C-alpha cells in the first residue's frame, strides 16, 4: 500500500507529493460493518485510501504523475538508462528524485532514489526510522544488510561490480541486485524489490490484451498454490465480465504453447513459424529456453432464437468489451495480492456505469480485503456523482509555468463534505483544474 509518493523534476512536475492518507478526521459511521472499503489500515498505523482519481484539464500533468510512478518502478527493478526526463522549462533543476512511503506486511518502508542522465546519485531504503542501506557518492552504508556470509566489504564489491560501470557510475539499483540476484540475503530488501517488481502495475493507457491479464492473475494464483491457475484465472475474469451486462453468456480459452530451445552453437533461438507469431499473445522463460503462447478466445452469445452463437473475442467483440476484459485480469491480480494499479485514462471507451463498477472493485470489501489500491486519471465526471469516492480520493491536477504541475485533493479544500456534489463544484471551477475553452 502506498502512503505517499514524492516527485521532483520529472516532465511537467517540479515538486509534488501524492498523499494517499485518509484525510477525514473521523471514520464514517458503521465503517466496521460496511461492505464499503473507506480506508485501509488502522488509525495507529495510518489509514490509507483504496482509490485515488486524478482530474484536471488537458496538459495539466495528470498522466505525468502515473508516468513518474512507472519510471520509479522501472528504475527500482533495473536501472536509470533512458529514464531521465527532466522539466525542460526549468533547466536549472538537474537531478530527478522519487521517494515512496509504503506498507508491506505491516511494516512501513521508505525507498528513495535520485538520478541524473546516466547514473544514480542517491539510493536509500528505510524501515520505520532505521536505515537498511544508503548509497551516495563515495559514502556507502550497507551494514544493516550485511551477514557473516556477506559482510559489508563483500556487499561493497557487489555494488562496485554489479551496480556500477568501470568508470564508477551506479547504473543499476542496489535494490534490484540484492532483491533479484541475492534474494535470501535480506528478506526485507527482497520484500521491497518484490513490491516494486510484482506489486506495482502502471498502464499508460487502459487497453491491455486479455491474455496478459489472465497471465498476471494466474501468476498470483500460482504463488498461492492454486492447482490450476490458468483455468481458474480465466474463469474468474469471465465470471465478472459476464456479470457486467455485456451480453456474453460464457467464454472459452484455448492456449497453444511452443517451446523455443536455445541453439548452443548459434547462440540464438530457432526459427518460429510466422503464422504462429501472428497469433502470439504472451511468452515466458523456462530456464534458458522460451515458451511462446498463442490464445484463441471464444465468447458465446444467445441469438434471437435462443441458440448459442460463437464469436471470436479479439475480432468480433467491441473494443470496450476487450478493454474491460484485459483490465479485470490486472485488477483481480492486484486485489488478490494487495498490489497497486495505476491506469491512465481509465474511462476511455468505457460506459460511465462500467467505469463506476470497475472502480467499485477496489471499494468493495468482498473483493478488496488485502489492501489493494487503484490510481487513475479520467475526464468523465459522472463518477464524482456516484457516491463512491470520498474527499480524500479525488485529486485535482493543475499547472502553471512557475510551479509546474501540482495536485490538490478535495480534502484540502475547506468546507467540502462527502455529501457535496463533487461534479458540479469541479465543473464550476471551485477546485480549479478545468479548461476555459472558447471558439
TrEMBL record:
From which source organism is this entry?
A: Oxalobacter paraformigenes
Q: Which GO terms describe its molecular function?
A: ATP binding; ATP hydrolysis activity
Q: Which domain of life is it from?
A: Bacteria
InterPro entries with a match to the protein in the record:
ATPase_AAA_core, P-loop_NTPase
Q: Per its record, how is this protein called by name?
A: ATPase AAA-type core domain-containing protein
Per the database record, which ranges form the ATPase AAA-type core domain? 248-385
Q: Name one Pfam family in it.
A: AAA_21
Amino acid at each position: 500500500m502506498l502512503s505517499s509518493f514524492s516527485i521532483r523534476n520529472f516532465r511537467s512536475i517540479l515538486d509534488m507529493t501524492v498523499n494517499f492518507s485518509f484525510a477525514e478526521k473521523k471514520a464514517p459511521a458503521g465503517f466496521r460493518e460496511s461492505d464499503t472499503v473507506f480506508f485501509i489500515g488502522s488509525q495507529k498505523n495510518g489509514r490509507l485510501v483504496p482509490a485515488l482519481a486524478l482530474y484536471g484539464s488537458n496538459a495539466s500533468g495528470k498522466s505525468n504523475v502515473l508516468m513518474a510512478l512507472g519510471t520509479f518502478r522501472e528504475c527500482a527493478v533495473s536501472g536509470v538508462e533512458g529514464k531521465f526526463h527532466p522539466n525542460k522549462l526549468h533547466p536549472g533543476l538537474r537531478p530527478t528524485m522519487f521517494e515512496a512511503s509504503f506498507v508491506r506486511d505491516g511494516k512501513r518502508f521508505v525507498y528513495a532514489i535520485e538520478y541524473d542522465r546516466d547514473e544514480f546519485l542517491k539510493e536509500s531504503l528505510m524501515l520505520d526510522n532505521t536505515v537498511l542501506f544508503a548509497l551516495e557518492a563515495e559514502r556507502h552504508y550497507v551494514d544493516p544488510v550485511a551477514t557473516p556470509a556477506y559482510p559489508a566489504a563483500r556487499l561493497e564489491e557487489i555494488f562496485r561490480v554489479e551496480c556500477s560501470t568501470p568508470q564508477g557510475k551506479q547504473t543499476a539499483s542496489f535494490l534490484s541486485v540484492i532483491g533479484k540476484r541475492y534474494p535470501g540475503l535480506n528478506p526485507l530488501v527482497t520484500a521491497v524489490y518484490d513490491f516494486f517488481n510484482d506489486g506495482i502495475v502502471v498502464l499508460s493507457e487502459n487497453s491491455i490484451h486479455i491474455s496478459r491479464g489472465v497471465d498476471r492473475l494466474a501468476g498470483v494464483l500460482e504463488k498461492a498454490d492454486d492447482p490450476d491457475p490458468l483455468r481458474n484465472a480465466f474463469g474468474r475474469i469471465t465470471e465478472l465480465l459476464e456479470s457486467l451486462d455485456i451480453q456474453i453468456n460464457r467464454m472459452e480459452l484455448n492456449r497453444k504453447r511452443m517451446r523455443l530451445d536455445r541453439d548452443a552453437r548459434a547462440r540464438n533461438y530457432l526459427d518460429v513459424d510466422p503464422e504462429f507469431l501472428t497469433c502470439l499473445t504472451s511468452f515466458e522463460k523456462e530456464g534458458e529456453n522460451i515458451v511462446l503462447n498463442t490464445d484463441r478466445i471464444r465468447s458465446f452469445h444467445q441469438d434471437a432464437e435462443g441458440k448459442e452463437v460463437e464469436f471470436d473475442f479479439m475480432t468480433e467483440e467491441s473494443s470496450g468489451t476487450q478493454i474491460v476484459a484485459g483490465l479485470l485480469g490486472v485488477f483481480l491480480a492486484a486485489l488478490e495480492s494487495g498490489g497497486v494499479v495505476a491506469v491512465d485514462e481509465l474511462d476511455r471507451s468505457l460506459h460511465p456505469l462500467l467505469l463506476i463498477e470497475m472502480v467499485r472493485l477496489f471499494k468493495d470489501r468482498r473483493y478488496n480485503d488485502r489492501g489493494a489500491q487503484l490510481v487513475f486519471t479520467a475526464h468523465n465526471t459522472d463518477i464524482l456523482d456516484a457516491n463512491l469516492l470520498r474527499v480524500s480520493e479525488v485529486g485535482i491536477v493543475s499547472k502553471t509555468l512557475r510551479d509546474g504541475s501540482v495536485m490538490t485533493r478535495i480534502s484540502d479544500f475547506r468546507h467540502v463534505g462527502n455529501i457535496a456534489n463533487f461534479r458540479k463544484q469541479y465543473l464550476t471551477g471551485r477546485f480549479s483544474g478545468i479548461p476555459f475553452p472558447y471558439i
